[in-house]
C-alpha cells in the first residue's frame, strides 16, 4: 500500500525560485497555488493544524522531523472550522510552538509532485514528493534525489534543515510579526490579505 510520503527538499535562492517557476510553467502541469497558515503544537508527535484557501485540516506526520519518508494522517475540515481546531487543542492543554506563513505553487512534473514554497521568515524551498510503500520508500527517495540533481540542485542535508528550523523556532514571532491566520478566499469569494509576498508579478 502506497501510504508513505517520500519527499526531498532543498533551500534555494529567491533568484533560483523565480527561475524554477518559469521552468515548471513551461515544462510541467500546473496544479494551482495555495496560501497556508500552519500551527505546530508542543506535542510528542509532529501534530499540526492548517488553514489554506480551500479548507483546514488536522495533520499528523509520523517519524522524526525532516525524515525523507513518513506516514501522514490528515483529517480535512472546513475553512470555518479552523478557529474550532485552535480551541480544541487549547482545551486539551496544548500550546502553539511555531506558526508558518507559506505561499505554495504546485506542479506535476514527470510523475512527481513539485512544490515551490516561499515561507515568510524562513526562505525559499523546492520539494519533490511521491507516495510509496514502506518497502520501496528508500528507493523512491533515492530517485527523487536524482531528479532534484537533474534540475541542478543538491538536496539540503537534514542537519541544515534542523539548524534552520531551530533558528526559526526561536525567532519566528519576530520574523513574521504573528499577524494572524488570514488566507486568500476560495473561488468565487473576495480575497483577503496574506502576510507574505504573493509573487503575483511572476508569470
Fold and architecture overview:
By secondary structure, this protein is of the alpha+beta class. It has one domain (4-176): Hypothetical Protein Pfu-838710-001. Helix content is 28%, strand content 37%. The chain is built from four helices and eight strands. The chain has helices at residues 14-27, 82-91, 137-150, 158-176; strands at 4-12, 29-41, 46-51, 56-61, 69-77, 96-109, 112-119, 123-132. A hairpin with a 7-residue loop joins strand 4 and strand 5. The longest helix is centred in the C-terminal third of the chain and has 19 residues, at 158-176. The protein is globular and about 45 Å long. It starts with a strand and ends in a 27-residue tail after the last helix. Residues 184-203 have low confidence and may be disordered.
- Which CATH-level-2 architecture? Beta Barrel
Annotated CATH homologous superfamily:
Hypothetical Protein Pfu-838710-001
Domains (count): 1
Structural shape = globular
DSSP summary: helix tally: 4
- Run of helices and strands: EHEEEEHEEEHH
What's the total count of β strands? Answer: 8
How far apart the termini lie comes to 38 Å
Helix content: 25-40%
How large is the share of residues in beta strands?
35-45%
Average pLDDT, rounded to a whole number, is 88
Give the biggest sheet.
Answer: 8 strands, antiparallel, barrel
**What's the level 1 CATH class?**
Mainly Beta
Give unreliable regions as ranges. Answer: 184-203
As for the CATH topology, it is Hypothetical Protein Pfu-838710-001
Strand order of the largest sheet: 1-5-4-3-2-6-7-8
Structure classification? alpha+beta
Q: Gyration radius, to the nearest Å?
A: 17 Å
